[in-house]
Amino acid sequence: MTLLFRLLGRFPLRTLHRLGALLGWAAWFASPAYRRHLKENLALAYDPAEAKAILPAAIAHAGRGVLELPWVWLRDRAEVTDRVMQVTGWEVVEQARARGEGILFLTPHLGCFDIIAQYLAVRMKLTVLYRPPKLAWLKPLMEEGRGGGDLHLAPADLSGVRLLLRALKRHEAIGMLPDQVPGMGEGVWANFFGRPAFTMTLAARLTETGQASVILTYAERLPRGTGFHMHFLPLQNELDGSLEQRVAALNRAIEALIRRCPGQYMWGYNRYKAPRGAEPPPC
Predict the structure, then answer these.
(1) What's the pLDDT tens digit per position in 246-258?
(2) Per the confidence metrics, is the pTM higher than 0.85?
């Protein structure tokens, strides 16, 4: 599998996106559980007509997201970031840096989320929260692709949280996937597209320090594998209130971000699962 992964990394991005679309449809037909999750999650966010219209793109982009990983992780960082063809909202980042603030980049499973860290790491020091994959053979490839240079990995444990806090104190940038289901003791139940989802509290807790400017970001795939359009957006509303209120507000902000590019969200991700040992969601 490692050899196949490295071989795929040599393919042009255009080819990988074409093959990825086929892979997405193959997964759709092969897995009843995947079909169920994807349909149910889309139905929470959109009416039936809208969900039906988004569905084909969501299936194809899920496969593209898998097959573009070897290209993003294993190629030279300069070559990868050169395929960012357009950037919108970079002034939001520059304004935060001019204020001398640390930056918390929140990147949901939307578009090519792995390329964002690569793009940022050639412009600033960046520490990203990292959860090892379940597949053992993939771990060294992920660490090779996601780390190096000014891109540092923080494990999803207490030691990693300390790394993130130290980076913010140095007024550096950190990043994480805010819609990833956390482990037991690391989250609370909060609505996500109208249904309770076990949601990480770390992002909300980091905003309580007053040391981080929160920026939402995603990398939109351009047609025919021509590259990516990077988007950076500030939070529309200040975060305040209790921890639970902050978590809920961040979920609403992520929902709004996803609605900007719904066909490229990972709707098949089992967002509403409960980690082992967690109390069920409130009725």
Answers:
(1) 999 999 999 999 9
(2) yes
